[in-house]
Write the structure tokens for this entry.
Amino acid sequence: MSDCYILTDARLAPMHVEGGPGYSQSGVVVVDGATIAFVGAEDGLPEQYRSAQRRPLEGRLVTPGLIDCHTHLIYHGSRAREFEMRQTGASYEEIMRAGGGIFSTVEATRLASNEELLSGALVRVDRLISEGVTTVEIKSGYGLDIETELRMLRVARMLEQHRPIRIRTTFLGAHAYPKHMDADEYLDDVCLPAMGAADAEGLVDAVDGFCETVGFSSRQVDRVFEQAAKLGLPVKLHAEQLSDQGGAILAASYQALSADHLEFLSDEGIAAMAAAGTVAVLLPGAFFMLKETQKPPVEKLREAGVPLAIATDCNPGSSPMTSLLLAMNMGAILFGLSPQECLEGVTKNAARALGLSDVGQIKPGMRADLNIWDVDDPAELTYRMGDAPLKQRIFGGAEC
Ligand code: DI6
Ligand code: FE
């Protein structure tokens, strides 16, 4: 029983318990190799684990490893200059229409070598790791040509060789289209072939799109999703961030894993998401950075029983943010989520937004991705503003 140990004298937020949320209870966790073998009260500990090594935690809080389920963290260059422009009056859409915004990041990303993309991404991943993040979703979408879209996904996957982290990659070829093409031409000549090539290389866990007046119409996203469905790939969507394009309804019609942003989500969109079991991924960092005023309809989503997740949306334009804990605080302060909802949003609901069933909760049989925090109340994680009281991160059973 050498690689088996018991976390004892712990406060647990297992994020599930019969008849309750499993948000705060006392108990023990048995880690056997890379897997959680038991969670519950000390006196229910199965006989075979009684002699395993004990690690008393002096009442510290144990949560699942955190999951950042929406990032664009592979990119090159900075958009600080553009931020300066925004601070002196230009809007996000105006800058993008003038060829800046996503396009300036595309230009820098195309010119960057794989090594440069990797080293930039490692800095951001290390920030997330320092806060107890154990799974990160990363999107392509700053290539807009076949080769660069593929390179972004390859570099994203490479991160797993450099850090103890699990990466899920999302193909976001339909993020924007180059100025010299129209949207359908771009889908035919670049985006759909790139999706096929990326899938053939095994680089795609899900397919995403940017459904917006400055992105793709719902009819165009439908074309992207149709091919994803043919390839057997799940979908998710940037929907209703700046205007209501009916994106969430379309996404739900494909049983999307998630629809993300959702500030301008309609009642029909909410009903469609509830019926399809689509997770609402809220991105308060982008809302804050773009000084949006219309909030996502959190109360209605709650009433409809749509699961809520929170992510950083880490990207150089609308959310240059590498703190998932700060996103939790913003989710509470800006969108009115409770600390419990915020923790669910970066654990079990974030796992669901990625189609993962082996992480996001402390449950027998799940991966032992865990955090030990230097606090005893789970509300501390949302209450503090980007401060990480992390004592120990455990990835696949190993302390790191
Ligand atoms: N919505 C976002 O918030 C990011 N992409 C998207 O479709 C922003 C990307 C960027 O500005 O670089
Ligand atoms: Fe995004």
